[in-house]
Design brief:
Layout lengths: L12 H4 L10 H10 L4 E4 L6 H11 L4 E5 L6 H5 E6 L2 E6 L1 H8 L2 E5 L6 H7 L8 E4 L4 E4 L5 E6 L12 H4 L3 E4 L5 H12 L3 H15 L12 H12 L4 H10 L6 H15 L1
Parallel strand pairs: 1-8, 1-9, 2-5, 5-8
Antiparallel strand pairs: 3-4, 6-7
Helix pairs in contact: 8-9, 8-10, 9-10, 9-12, 10-11, 11-12
Length: 273
């Protein structure tokens, strides 16, 4: 296996023009199998390792509409399902992104689902078993998912605590896939492709990222993401000095502690000279 997601046989131009994604294993085949069999999918992995890009890639690859919801502390079930709004002097019902996906047979992606309020998971349960229904209490509807509807959710297990976690009764409703940062050679290829920077210089950025990730749980709360390496490489490709690009894209986003930043910058000097 070469790590790439091959286009589906007979795919349209839209599918073959899917957002770039370089697979680490069989995640593309797993997603396709889950989609074909109406199974919801849970993606687990650190921030910035490619989960969202993967879903965008697969939605385009399968020629399916995609509704992406960035979950947060105030996100409620009503935000997903919909609500009555005042329009032109009339009160009208407006579907939320989850309801639109259910009606249209689209993919609904809930990014960092554990950040949402607890009532969200209650809404998801009847959609993630053989019923595949969405009860809408405000309108009295019991909406059956259209063919093709797929629920995908993601979260970062590294951020879990006693207050923010998925209950086993929720996790066990999904097919799950573990994501992580790519191996250095693969990550170098991804960053070079995304940024336009030559592989030789990208390789040093990836080497730095690996060292920074080793500090997770010690000086750093989280390791540097592939996304941040792309940012740094993009700045360098545009002519910014390496140390300044790395500071702006790979050091400053990780910590506000002045002493830790000085230590990390010393590591940058050690790698880049």
């Amino acid at each position: 296996m070469d790590g790439s997601c091959k286009p589906v046989e007979g795919a349209s131009k839209k599918a073959t023009d899917a957002p770039f994604y370089l697979a680490q294993g069989d995640e593309c085949a797993l997603f396709e199998a889950a989609s074909a069999n109406n199974l919801p999918m849970l993606l687990k992995g650190p921030t910035g390792c490619g989960k969202t890009r993967f879903v965008s890639h697969m939605a385009a690859r399968l020629n399916r509409p995609l509704y992406t919801v960035a979950c947060h502390d105030d996100l409620s079930a009503a935000d997903l399902i919909g609500r009555y709004l005042l329009k032109g002097g009339e009160t009208v019902w407006v579907d939320g992104p989850l309801t639109r996906a259910v009606r249209e047979g689209a993919i609904c992606y809930l990014d960092e689902v554990v950040e949402a309020r607890k009532d969200v998971t209650v809404v998801l349960h009847p959609l993630t078993d053989d019923r595949r229904i969405l009860p809408i209490d405000r309108t009295g509807e019991e909406l059956e998912a259209a063919p093709g509807f797929m629920l995908v959710a993601s979260y970062n297990p590294g951020y879990q605590n006693i207050l923010k976690t998925l209950k086993p009764s929720t996790r066990q409703r999904f097919v799950a896939a573990e994501f992580d940062f790519p191996p250095p050679d693969l990550e170098t290829d991804i960053v070079a492709r995304e940024s336009g920077l030559d592989s030789a210089r990208v390789r040093s950025l990836v080497r730095l990222a690996v060292k920074l990730r080793a500090l997770k749980g010690q000086d750093l709360e989280e390791g540097v993401s592939t996304r941040l390496i792309v940012y740094a490489a993009t700045l360098i490709a545009q002519g910014m000095p390496v140390e300044r690009a790395v500071e702006a894209a790979m050091i400053e986003p990780l910590t506000d502690d002045a002493d830790i930043k000085r230590g990390l910058l010393d590591l940058v000097v050690a790698i880049f000279g």
